[in-house]
Specification:
single chain, alpha+beta, 3 domains, three-stranded antiparallel β-sheet, two-stranded antiparallel ribbon, 11 helices, 15% strand
Length: 259
Protein backbone atom coordinates (compact mmCIF):
# COMPACT_ATOMS: atom_id res chain seq x y z
CA UNK A 1 0.00 0.00 0.00
CA UNK A 2 1.40 3.42 -0.97
CA UNK A 3 1.98 5.50 2.15
CA UNK A 4 1.85 8.74 0.15
CA UNK A 5 -1.95 8.56 -0.05
CA UNK A 6 -3.44 11.12 2.31
CA UNK A 7 -5.85 10.00 5.00
CA UNK A 8 -9.44 11.19 4.62
CA UNK A 9 -12.15 11.45 7.28
CA UNK A 10 -15.84 12.25 7.32
CA UNK A 11 -17.89 13.65 10.19
CA UNK A 12 -21.28 12.44 11.36
CA UNK A 13 -22.58 15.94 10.52
CA UNK A 14 -21.51 15.47 6.89
CA UNK A 15 -23.08 12.01 6.72
CA UNK A 16 -26.34 13.34 8.16
CA UNK A 17 -26.43 16.15 5.59
CA UNK A 18 -25.80 13.77 2.68
CA UNK A 19 -28.30 11.13 3.72
CA UNK A 20 -31.05 13.43 4.99
CA UNK A 21 -30.97 11.69 8.37
CA UNK A 22 -31.14 13.54 11.68
CA UNK A 23 -27.69 14.02 13.13
CA UNK A 24 -28.63 12.53 16.49
CA UNK A 25 -29.75 9.37 14.67
CA UNK A 26 -26.49 9.15 12.69
CA UNK A 27 -24.55 9.75 15.91
CA UNK A 28 -26.52 7.00 17.63
CA UNK A 29 -25.80 4.59 14.75
CA UNK A 30 -22.09 5.48 14.82
CA UNK A 31 -21.92 4.93 18.59
CA UNK A 32 -23.53 1.50 18.16
CA UNK A 33 -21.11 0.60 15.35
CA UNK A 34 -18.15 1.61 17.50
CA UNK A 35 -19.51 -0.38 20.42
CA UNK A 36 -19.73 -3.52 18.25
CA UNK A 37 -16.22 -2.97 16.92
CA UNK A 38 -14.84 -2.72 20.45
CA UNK A 39 -16.77 -5.79 21.61
CA UNK A 40 -16.08 -8.16 18.73
CA UNK A 41 -12.67 -7.15 17.39
CA UNK A 42 -9.57 -5.24 18.31
CA UNK A 43 -10.47 -1.54 18.14
CA UNK A 44 -8.71 0.68 15.64
CA UNK A 45 -7.76 3.70 17.72
CA UNK A 46 -7.79 5.90 14.64
CA UNK A 47 -11.21 4.76 13.46
CA UNK A 48 -13.15 7.38 15.34
CA UNK A 49 -12.49 10.54 17.32
CA UNK A 50 -14.66 12.87 19.36
CA UNK A 51 -15.20 16.43 18.16
CA UNK A 52 -17.68 19.28 18.49
CA UNK A 53 -19.55 21.67 16.21
CA UNK A 54 -21.76 24.73 16.68
CA UNK A 55 -25.45 24.31 15.95
CA UNK A 56 -27.73 27.01 14.52
CA UNK A 57 -28.03 28.53 18.01
CA UNK A 58 -24.22 28.65 18.39
CA UNK A 59 -24.36 25.88 20.98
CA UNK A 60 -21.46 23.44 21.12
CA UNK A 61 -22.66 19.93 20.27
CA UNK A 62 -20.97 16.54 20.00
CA UNK A 63 -20.07 14.86 16.72
CA UNK A 64 -17.72 12.07 15.60
CA UNK A 65 -14.96 12.10 13.01
CA UNK A 66 -14.76 8.73 11.23
CA UNK A 67 -12.11 7.17 9.05
CA UNK A 68 -12.90 5.19 5.90
CA UNK A 69 -13.33 1.87 7.70
CA UNK A 70 -15.84 3.28 10.19
CA UNK A 71 -17.75 5.27 7.56
CA UNK A 72 -18.24 2.12 5.49
CA UNK A 73 -19.10 0.07 8.58
CA UNK A 74 -21.76 2.65 9.44
CA UNK A 75 -23.36 2.98 5.99
CA UNK A 76 -23.48 -0.79 5.39
CA UNK A 77 -26.72 -0.69 7.37
CA UNK A 78 -28.22 2.04 5.15
CA UNK A 79 -30.14 1.46 1.94
CA UNK A 80 -28.52 1.39 -1.50
CA UNK A 81 -29.37 4.99 -2.42
CA UNK A 82 -27.86 6.41 0.76
CA UNK A 83 -24.74 4.23 0.42
CA UNK A 84 -24.37 5.43 -3.18
CA UNK A 85 -24.51 9.07 -2.04
CA UNK A 86 -21.90 8.66 0.70
CA UNK A 87 -19.55 6.53 -1.43
CA UNK A 88 -19.78 9.05 -4.26
CA UNK A 89 -18.76 11.83 -1.91
CA UNK A 90 -15.95 9.72 -0.47
CA UNK A 91 -14.56 9.08 -3.96
CA UNK A 92 -14.65 12.85 -4.66
CA UNK A 93 -12.66 13.48 -1.46
CA UNK A 94 -10.10 10.81 -2.34
CA UNK A 95 -9.67 12.19 -5.86
CA UNK A 96 -9.17 15.72 -4.52
CA UNK A 97 -6.73 14.65 -1.81
CA UNK A 98 -4.78 12.15 -3.89
CA UNK A 99 -5.09 12.94 -7.61
CA UNK A 100 -2.05 10.81 -8.47
CA UNK A 101 -3.67 7.72 -7.01
CA UNK A 102 -7.28 8.44 -8.01
CA UNK A 103 -7.93 5.20 -9.91
CA UNK A 104 -6.39 3.04 -7.18
CA UNK A 105 -8.39 4.91 -4.52
CA UNK A 106 -11.68 4.44 -6.38
CA UNK A 107 -11.04 0.73 -6.93
CA UNK A 108 -10.07 0.21 -3.29
CA UNK A 109 -13.14 2.13 -2.13
CA UNK A 110 -15.58 0.06 -4.19
CA UNK A 111 -13.92 -3.24 -3.26
CA UNK A 112 -13.95 -2.31 0.42
CA UNK A 113 -17.64 -1.40 0.42
CA UNK A 114 -18.66 -4.46 -1.62
CA UNK A 115 -16.73 -6.71 0.77
CA UNK A 116 -18.65 -5.27 3.71
CA UNK A 117 -21.99 -5.66 1.94
CA UNK A 118 -21.13 -9.27 1.07
CA UNK A 119 -20.20 -9.97 4.69
CA UNK A 120 -23.52 -8.55 5.82
CA UNK A 121 -25.57 -10.48 3.24
CA UNK A 122 -26.04 -13.75 5.24
CA UNK A 123 -27.05 -11.82 8.37
CA UNK A 124 -29.43 -9.62 6.38
CA UNK A 125 -30.94 -12.67 4.65
CA UNK A 126 -31.57 -14.30 8.04
CA UNK A 127 -33.00 -11.03 9.34
CA UNK A 128 -35.42 -10.83 6.37
CA UNK A 129 -36.35 -14.54 6.61
CA UNK A 130 -37.13 -14.27 10.30
CA UNK A 131 -39.17 -11.11 9.84
CA UNK A 132 -41.27 -12.60 7.04
CA UNK A 133 -41.74 -16.10 8.50
CA UNK A 134 -41.36 -16.73 12.24
CA UNK A 135 -41.31 -13.07 13.26
CA UNK A 136 -39.33 -11.25 15.95
CA UNK A 137 -39.87 -11.31 19.68
CA UNK A 138 -41.00 -7.99 21.13
CA UNK A 139 -37.54 -7.18 22.49
CA UNK A 140 -35.83 -8.14 19.20
CA UNK A 141 -38.22 -5.94 17.24
CA UNK A 142 -37.70 -2.97 19.56
CA UNK A 143 -33.93 -3.36 19.37
CA UNK A 144 -34.02 -3.41 15.56
CA UNK A 145 -36.34 -0.40 15.47
CA UNK A 146 -34.45 1.67 18.04
CA UNK A 147 -37.31 1.60 20.57
CA UNK A 148 -35.92 1.77 24.10
CA UNK A 149 -37.43 0.30 27.29
CA UNK A 150 -39.47 -2.38 25.44
CA UNK A 151 -40.99 -3.84 28.62
CA UNK A 152 -42.21 -0.44 29.79
CA UNK A 153 -43.52 0.37 26.31
CA UNK A 154 -45.51 -2.87 26.27
CA UNK A 155 -46.90 -2.09 29.73
CA UNK A 156 -47.95 1.32 28.37
CA UNK A 157 -49.74 -0.38 25.46
CA UNK A 158 -51.61 -2.53 27.98
CA UNK A 159 -52.64 0.55 29.99
CA UNK A 160 -53.85 2.27 26.82
CA UNK A 161 -55.91 -0.74 25.75
CA UNK A 162 -53.62 -1.53 22.80
CA UNK A 163 -52.50 -4.79 24.38
CA UNK A 164 -54.00 -7.20 26.91
CA UNK A 165 -52.61 -9.34 29.73
CA UNK A 166 -54.46 -12.47 30.80
CA UNK A 167 -53.17 -15.35 32.89
CA UNK A 168 -49.64 -14.00 32.63
CA UNK A 169 -49.71 -13.82 28.82
CA UNK A 170 -49.71 -10.65 26.73
CA UNK A 171 -51.41 -10.22 23.36
CA UNK A 172 -51.59 -7.19 21.05
CA UNK A 173 -54.84 -5.55 19.99
CA UNK A 174 -56.40 -7.14 16.86
CA UNK A 175 -55.63 -4.07 14.72
CA UNK A 176 -51.89 -4.83 14.83
CA UNK A 177 -52.56 -8.36 13.56
CA UNK A 178 -55.01 -7.20 10.90
CA UNK A 179 -52.66 -4.68 9.35
CA UNK A 180 -49.76 -7.14 9.38
CA UNK A 181 -47.55 -5.52 12.03
CA UNK A 182 -47.63 -8.66 14.16
CA UNK A 183 -48.81 -12.25 14.08
CA UNK A 184 -50.41 -14.38 16.75
CA UNK A 185 -48.34 -17.14 18.35
CA UNK A 186 -49.76 -20.36 19.75
CA UNK A 187 -49.50 -20.99 23.47
CA UNK A 188 -47.59 -24.14 22.55
CA UNK A 189 -44.79 -22.08 20.99
CA UNK A 190 -41.52 -22.49 22.91
CA UNK A 191 -40.87 -18.76 22.81
CA UNK A 192 -43.96 -18.20 24.96
CA UNK A 193 -42.22 -19.90 27.87
CA UNK A 194 -39.48 -17.25 27.76
CA UNK A 195 -41.38 -14.11 26.73
CA UNK A 196 -44.95 -14.62 27.88
CA UNK A 197 -46.09 -12.93 24.67
CA UNK A 198 -48.79 -14.38 22.42
CA UNK A 199 -47.44 -12.48 19.41
CA UNK A 200 -44.37 -11.81 17.33
CA UNK A 201 -43.61 -8.68 15.34
CA UNK A 202 -43.25 -8.96 11.56
CA UNK A 203 -40.67 -7.25 9.35
CA UNK A 204 -43.46 -4.90 8.27
CA UNK A 205 -44.14 -4.12 11.90
CA UNK A 206 -40.49 -3.21 12.50
CA UNK A 207 -40.17 -1.11 9.34
CA UNK A 208 -43.59 0.55 9.18
CA UNK A 209 -44.86 0.63 12.76
CA UNK A 210 -42.04 0.71 15.32
CA UNK A 211 -39.06 2.30 13.56
CA UNK A 212 -40.87 5.36 12.09
CA UNK A 213 -42.56 5.99 15.45
CA UNK A 214 -39.61 5.29 17.78
CA UNK A 215 -39.30 8.93 18.81
CA UNK A 216 -43.06 9.35 19.33
CA UNK A 217 -43.15 6.16 21.41
CA UNK A 218 -40.30 7.45 23.60
CA UNK A 219 -42.12 10.75 24.21
CA UNK A 220 -45.41 8.96 24.91
CA UNK A 221 -43.66 6.74 27.45
CA UNK A 222 -42.25 9.77 29.27
CA UNK A 223 -45.74 11.27 29.53
CA UNK A 224 -47.28 7.94 30.50
CA UNK A 225 -44.85 7.44 33.37
CA UNK A 226 -45.83 10.74 34.99
CA UNK A 227 -48.27 10.40 37.92
CA UNK A 228 -51.85 10.71 36.68
CA UNK A 229 -55.31 10.17 38.15
CA UNK A 230 -57.69 7.38 37.20
CA UNK A 231 -61.29 8.55 37.33
CA UNK A 232 -64.60 6.69 37.32
CA UNK A 233 -67.68 7.47 35.25
CA UNK A 234 -68.76 10.09 37.80
CA UNK A 235 -65.43 11.93 37.60
CA UNK A 236 -64.07 10.82 40.97
CA UNK A 237 -60.42 9.86 41.30
CA UNK A 238 -60.24 6.15 42.12
CA UNK A 239 -56.52 5.55 41.68
CA UNK A 240 -53.25 7.23 40.79
CA UNK A 241 -50.91 5.60 38.30
CA UNK A 242 -47.39 6.39 37.14
CA UNK A 243 -43.91 6.18 38.59
CA UNK A 244 -43.69 7.08 42.27
CA UNK A 245 -47.47 7.15 42.69
CA UNK A 246 -47.72 4.32 45.24
CA UNK A 247 -48.11 6.63 48.24
CA UNK A 248 -49.54 9.68 46.50
CA UNK A 249 -52.89 11.28 47.19
CA UNK A 250 -54.91 13.62 45.00
CA UNK A 251 -53.34 16.68 46.67
CA UNK A 252 -49.92 15.52 45.41
CA UNK A 253 -51.08 15.76 41.79
CA UNK A 254 -50.56 18.87 39.66
CA UNK A 255 -53.69 21.03 39.77
CA UNK A 256 -54.36 20.64 36.05
CA UNK A 257 -54.65 16.84 36.42
CA UNK A 258 -57.10 16.85 39.34
CA UNK A 259 -60.78 16.15 38.71
Amino acid sequence: MNTDIKAITMTTIEIAAMTGKRHDHVLRDADKAMSLVHEKMAPDLGACSEATYLDSYKREKRMLVLNKQMVFTLITGYDTELRYTVVGRWIELEQAANPTFASQAITATLIDLQTRVDMMAPAYAEHTRKGTTTGYTWREACRLAGVENPDKVLAMLVDKGLARRFNGLTSLAPKFIERGDAKRVSKANKAIQMTGHLFKVTLKGVDEWLRPNAEKIAKALIEHRKPRPVVDSDGYVTDIKGEGSAHMTIVDLPKETRQ
